[in-house]
Amino acid sequence: MEAFDTYQTPLSSRYASKEMAHLFSAANRFHTWRKLWLNLAIAEKELGLPVTDEAIEQMKANLHLDEKQFEIAAAEEKKRRHDVMAHVHTFGQVAPAAAGIIHLGATSCYVTDNADLIFIRQALTLLLGKLAVVIDRFASFANQYRDLPTLGFTHFQPAQLTTVGKRTTLWLQELLWDLRNFKRARDDLGFRGVKGTTGTQASFLALFDGDHDKVEELDRRVTALSGFTYAYPVTSQTYSRKIDVDVLAPLASFGATAHKLATDLRLLANLKEVEEPFESTQIGSSAMAYKRNPMRAERICSLARHLMTLQQNALATASVQWFERTLDDSANRRITLPEAFLTADIVLTTLQNVSEGLVVYPRVIARRIAQELPFMATENIIMAIVKAGGDRQEAHEKIRVLSHEAAHQVKQLGLDNDLIERVRKDPYFDPIKDQLDALLDPKTFVGRAPEQVDRFLAEWVRPALADAELQSALGKAGKAELSV
């Protein structure tokens, strides 16, 4: 019952994937701290400091905490008011041979900051795989509906026709940019490394009796043991909080992509042209039993708005870090960083679920086209009359008058658009009446939309997903199921 008696963030308790929720869990955080202490001890031993084999083995054997160790650490933190030292003490109890050398020469940020960089990199890797799956699913949808004409909208007013597939490529292009941005952010990440209390490495220089080469090698070795190709060349006590800004920027940008896409789907649901998945037992409204609310798209918009705001928090934090550091970033970042990645993870899962079950209603789409196409076809009708020997200005005036009459039927009387019927009844248009069906074929109004879809998928989407890492993620991906 304890879980029901205290506040639980819905990000982890209600929405997020197990993988992302575990990544930012206390168990993984303190496990990662212990691995960092182990890497430091290994490197210090290799470079000649008095670290025994027994100490290394005991540390390796106790990298994971059990429930009792969590209780000890909690009691120690309450007493010492210092989370890192509480865990140094707890680790030393299960690895007594290492108790005297755990955290040797390091500052708290050695574990806290380096661990955060590890989590950020792993989280971006998870998001990259999930985003690749979303792109793949929407690409299949675009291909399936590459040539299905649909009414385009500008200002949410009827405009020239496009196709359902072409509209989808507009979403896909932005998702591809997000894929690029996620990968850039991840691959650009460095390691804080072994820098000491204010970034000067003074404590390590003292440990190695003034040997600068050994201190530099220690930094390189711990960086390599921790899986990074490089460490930031200079740091203060922390890595620059501008790194958090650079990491959250692509997440916020993705939030804008997701919000735009989901908003389009919500509008399409209102038009009854395209709907998100809706289970047979799902309830749209507690009062209105007939409703099929776009709750998935609405959830995406809701969470995406939150995601877009989090970069502002990182910007504010980076801007107020005094000199070598202040501690007013700590509590803030404990919330902001996990929330950003958990939120992005949830949005991606929901997008995948939506993309795998979109329902298209071609007859509704065709009916809406039929309401608007006659007005759009007027220029084609005028050109056909001219080709048949008619006068352009006379044809224009005829069409203008008939168009206004048809518009009156639609706007004032609520009737269907009967412009074409009026054209058929007018003897002036006798020379082209046998061409009217061809002139009104929706597929002749979509331009190169189908070909643009084909080319975009072949030249942009498939190459972007051809990367071995992304192919592996696609191979492992099943259908996305929502917990709620």
What is this structure, in a nutshell?
The chain is mainly alpha-helical and 484 residues long. It has helices spanning 2-5, 10-15, 18-23, 26-46, 53-61, 67-80, 83-94, 108-144, 164-188, 202-207, 212-225, 242-271, 295-319, 330-355, 362-376, 378-387, 392-411, 419-425, 436-439, 449-465, 468-476; strands spanning 149-154, 157-163, 274-275, 359-360. It catalyses: N(6)-(1,2-dicarboxyethyl)-AMP = fumarate + AMP; (2S)-2-[5-amino-1-(5-phospho-beta-D-ribosyl)imidazole-4-carboxamido]succinate = 5-amino-1-(5-phospho-beta-D-ribosyl)imidazole-4-carboxamide + fumarate.
In round numbers, the mean pLDDT is: 92
Overall domain count: 3
Read across the widest sheet, the strand sequence of neighbours is 1-2
Count of β-strands: 4
Helix content: 55-70%
| Rg for CA atoms | 31 Å
The percent range for strand residues is: under 5%
**CATH structural class of the largest domain:** Mainly Alpha
> What summary fits the major beta sheet?
2 strands, antiparallel
Q: Any low-confidence stretches, pLDDT <50, length ≥5?
A: 285-290
Structural class: mainly alpha
Count of DSSP H/I helices: 21
Per CATH, the architecture of the largest domain is: Up-down Bundle
CATH topology of the largest domain: Fumarase C, Chain A, domain 2
For this structure, what is the CATH homologous superfamily of the largest domain? Fumarase/aspartase (Central domain)
Question: What is the helix/strand order?
Answer: HHHHHHHHEEHHHHEHHEHHHHHHH
